[in-house]
């Protein structure tokens, strides 16, 4: 893993993305070359009237397909699936979406259009190229040299959780667990045959080198008495990667684990960028995105409003108080998706998956996120951002603050129409669900950037396309 604007990015995914960009640009040139040969013309781009336009066209083609594949979730890898059905189920829709995007691009910039004959060949070659690239990629990923050999310092519950995470990771990173260095202050929660007993006088560095360790994960909850800080420093100075459990969890799950989190890690760990530049860029991003979405979806919003009214002749909009940035109360606006008597008892209730209070029209709007569109008005007013933690009702916030550690941290930024927790986790109907979503929200608050906002918008499109609304 490496970081782009504080967000962890898998090296494996980055390499795959880079290779497929080259494949797609190469497919554009190969398609043009084949078309020239069919027409009996020399396959020389220097003879074209605007060769620089063709390069731009090739880049536009690659960008459209990569965006579409991202929206279909094709870069959220699962090595257990490999090239089985999910790959084909997503590749064809990706190409259809890419074609629609290109149609819009060519309409706006007709000079970039390189003809139907070339375009058909380009898509055919690109499909074969992407399949070949993925086949080579998944076969290569099975090789052991791509694994990271890891050693865990600790043998208690935290070490077990981290090792389970490493062992069951089927997406972005593969680990080979060398073993565990036991801690005398912890109960044994890991397999005893994986414990590493060092000979008297043998250092942690020697043990790590003897077993070919590349990374050491410090997974000891109680670091008092006998904690090998000097030996860990020696390992780091000799080129071994040393990672603490909180960072390991953040890197592998894109969450911040709160039950064993030390406040000092949040204070000194970096992130939490609330600078003027970041705030200005985010506000500009919000205004631009909201304006574009409002322009594109205004006819859809009119249709949704009519459908809600025809459903039961009740109110079209639903306004509710929510907790925003710095704990300030504001009213959020949505298309009404529940019956008018949804809370006839007068007591707030958690929204649940397959909630019987949701109307038929409301169920469709929730799955496709149409019910959220009126919140664009909240974004224009500056009460919300386009991307951020989901705003919650004060009744639930007061309860969650009491039982969920660090819950108030999510109120240090503006709430959003969509967010990291919404695209990564399902409906929340309990304090446990709120804890899981908070761990995603904390990751966003700590690592928020324009880059991460764009990734969340792409993931939101995937949620809408597959009707897996949160």
Please give the count of helices: 16
Helix content: 40-55%
Order of helices and strands: EEHHHHEHEHEHEHHHEEHHEHEHHH
Radius of gyration: 26 Å
Largest sheet: 4 strands, parallel
- Overall pLDDT level: 85
Structural class: alpha/beta
- How many strand segments? 10
**Beta strand %:** 5-15%
CA-based shape: flat
Uncertain residue segments: 45-49
Main β-sheet, spatial strand arrangement = 4-3-5-6
- Termini separation comes to 28 Å
Oligomer: single chain
| Count of folded domains | 3
Family: Belongs to the bacterial sugar transferase family.
Main location: membrane
Subcellular location: Membrane
Membrane topology: Multi-pass membrane protein
List the helices and strands and how they pair.
Blueprint: E1 2-4, E2 7-9, H1 11-38, H2 51-71, H3 85-108, H4 116-140, E3 148-153, H5 157-167, E4 175-181, H6 204-210, E5 215-218, H7 229-237, E6 241-244, H8 245-253, H9 263-268, H10 276-312, E7 317-323, E8 329-335, H11 360-368, H12 376-380, E9 385-387, H13 394-403, E10 416-418, H14 420-424, H15 431-447, H16 450-465
Parallel strand pairs: 3-4, 3-5, 5-6, 9-10
Antiparallel strand pairs: 1-2, 7-8
Helix pairs in contact: 1-2, 1-4, 2-3, 5-8, 10-11
Commentary on this structure:
The protein folds into three domains: 139 residues, no CATH class; 107 residues, Rossmann fold, CATH 3.40.50.10700; 190 residues, no CATH class. Helix content is 51%, strand content 10%. It is built from 16 helices and ten strands. The strands form four sheets. Strands 4-3-5-6 form a four-stranded parallel β-sheet, with helices on both faces. Strands 1-2 form a two-stranded antiparallel sheet. A hairpin with a 2-residue loop joins strand 1 and strand 2. The longest helix is centred in the middle third of the chain and has 37 residues. The radius of gyration is 26 Å and the shape is flat. About 1% of the residues have low confidence.
């Amino acid at each position: 893993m490496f970081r782009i604007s504080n967000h962890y990015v898998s090296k494996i995914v980055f390499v795959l993305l880079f290779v497929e960009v080259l494949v797609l640009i190469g497919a554009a040139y190969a398609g043009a070359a084949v078309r020239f040969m069919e027409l009996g013309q020399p396959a020389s781009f220097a003879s074209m009237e605007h060769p620089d336009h063709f390069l731009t066209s090739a880049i536009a083609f690659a960008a459209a397909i990569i965006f579409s594949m991202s929206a279909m979730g094709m870069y959220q890898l699962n090595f257990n699936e490999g090239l089985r059905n999910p790959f084909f189920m997503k590749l064809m829709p990706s190409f259809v979406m890419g074609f629609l995007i290109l149609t819009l691009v060519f309409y706006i910039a007709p000079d970039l259009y390189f003809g139907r004959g070339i375009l058909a060949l380009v898509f055919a070659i690109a499909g074969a190229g992407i399949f070949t690239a993925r086949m080579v990629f998944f076969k290569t990923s099975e090789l052991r040299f791509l694994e990271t050999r890891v050693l865990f310092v600790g043998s208690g519950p935290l070490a077990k959780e981290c090792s389970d995470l490493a062992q069951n990771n089927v997406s972005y990173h593969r680990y080979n667990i060398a073993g565990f260095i036991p801690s005398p202050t912890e109960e044994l929660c890991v397999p005893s045959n994986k414990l590493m007993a060092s000979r008297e006088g043998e250092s942690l560095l020697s043990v790590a080198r003897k077993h070919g360790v590349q990374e050491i994960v410090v997974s000891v909850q109680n670091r008092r008495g006998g904690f090998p800080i000097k030996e860990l420093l020696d390992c780091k100075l000799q080129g071994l990667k040393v990672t603490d459990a909180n960072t390991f969890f953040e890197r592998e799950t894109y969450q911040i684990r709160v039950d064993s989190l030390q406040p000092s890690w949040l204070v000194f760990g970096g992130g939490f960028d609330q600078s003027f530049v970041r705030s200005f860029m985010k506000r500009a991003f919000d205004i631009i995105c909201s304006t574009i979405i409002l322009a594109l979806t205004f006819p859809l919003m009119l249709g949704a409003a009519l459908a809600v009214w025809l459903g039961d002749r009740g109110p079209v909009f639903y306004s509710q108080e929510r907790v925003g940035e710095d704990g300030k109360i504001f009213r959020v606006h949505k298309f009404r998706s529940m019956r008018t008597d949804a809370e006839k008892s007068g007591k707030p209730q958690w929204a649940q998956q397959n909630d019987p209070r949701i109307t038929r029209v409301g169920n469709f709007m929730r799955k496709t996120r149409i019910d959220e569109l009126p919140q664009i008005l909240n974004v224009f007013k500056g009460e919300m951002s386009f991307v951020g933690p989901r705003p919650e009702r004060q009744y639930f916030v007061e309860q969650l603050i009491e039982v969920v550690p660090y819950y108030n941290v999510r109120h240090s930024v503006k709430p959003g129409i969509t967010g990291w927790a919404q695209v990564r986790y399902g409906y929340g109907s309990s304090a446990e669900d709120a804890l899981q979503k908070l761990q995603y929200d904390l990751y966003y608050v700590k690592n928020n950037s324009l880059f991460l906002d764009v990734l969340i918008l792409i993931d939101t499109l995937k949620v809408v396309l597959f009707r897996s609304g949160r």
